Amino acid sequence: MRRVIREVVDDGDVFEVHERWGTNVICALARLGGEVVGIVANQPSALAGVLDIAASEKAARFVQTCDAFNIPLVTLVDVPGFLPGVDQEHGGIIRHGAKLLYAYCNATVPRISLILRKAYGGAYIVMDSRSIGTDLALAWPSNEIAVMGAEGAANIIFRREIAAAEDPDAVRAQRIKEYRSELMHPFYAAERGLVDDVIDPAETRSRLVAGLAMLRAKQVTLPSRKHGNQPQ
């Protein structure tokens, strides 16, 4: 993911924040078209890019910092879900994930999300998805927006058919293939309105710069209240 970021930003110059903590998410400051932006990106080379407690805390804090100083946010999504496990459950992974959700929903700066590859389940939602108010949602043709991966989904949806088949492996493989072709093809997300456009990866930098220029005059009026009630 760092290679992708360096290809997109001005002069490949990136200042990463808390580089050695929560390594499955990247938080960095850079310039796009001369404008300072905050970049939040999943790092698939660390824990496959899942969101855990540390990554959620790190990203939430960074999003709030960018919003406090009026820095636009660019989110690069490649997330297979939240990290499962007893330790994460006891540590309150859902509560900490809610902090990231709150931070994005509360941010009034321009927000652009770009789905590079995997975008599964609740983790996709909290990574500045269309459903929580991102201003511009883009995707590469390699995007996979779904509740879960094709293998897991096929094993659940067609469980009885697979169990009753003479050759379960062949039926499972066929159902996985059908699930991918019908529900996980590149333009299915655009058909459902989950993204605004599916773009050529070579156009990523120009589309992000154009999106930031379009959103430069964004104004948001928040409800009249003393302060929000952030998850703890």
UniProtKB/TrEMBL annotation:
<dbReference type="InterPro" id="IPR051047">
    <property type="entry name" value="AccD/PCCB"/>
</dbReference>
<feature type="domain" description="CoA carboxyltransferase C-terminal">
    <location>
        <begin position="1"/>
        <end position="226"/>
    </location>
</feature>
<protein>
    <submittedName>
        <fullName>Acetyl-CoA carboxylase carboxyltransferase component</fullName>
    </submittedName>
</protein>
<dbReference type="InterPro" id="IPR034733">
    <property type="entry name" value="AcCoA_carboxyl_beta"/>
</dbReference>
<dbReference type="Pfam" id="PF01039">
    <property type="entry name" value="Carboxyl_trans"/>
</dbReference>
<dbReference type="InterPro" id="IPR029045">
    <property type="entry name" value="ClpP/crotonase-like_dom_sf"/>
</dbReference>
<dbReference type="InterPro" id="IPR011763">
    <property type="entry name" value="COA_CT_C"/>
</dbReference>
